[in-house]
Amino acid sequence: MRVMLVEPSRVGLKLMSRMLEEMGHDVSPFSEGDAALAYLHTSTDIEVLITSFEIPGASGIQL
Hints:
- By secondary structure, the chain is an alpha/beta fold.
- The chain has two helices and five strands; from the N terminus they run βαβαβββ.
- It has a single domain, classed as Response regulator (Rossmann fold), CATH 3.40.50.
- It has helices spanning 10-22, 33-42; strands at 2-6, 26-30, 48-51, 54-55, 58-59.
- The strands form two sheets. Strands 2-1-3 form a three-stranded parallel beta sheet. A two-stranded antiparallel sheet has the order 4-5.
- The two termini are 19 Å apart.
């Protein structure tokens, strides 16, 4: 499954990405909301979005 993960904590992002990848998922990790939002506008294959509520550049609700 294609998962987009947006988490401002670099440690949290790395841990969650690793966990999801070990489960067989393809993860696109982001720590900045504006970069994640730009990626969402160009990528059509994201099946799941996991995000924090508050992230730099955009809120989790905006995503």
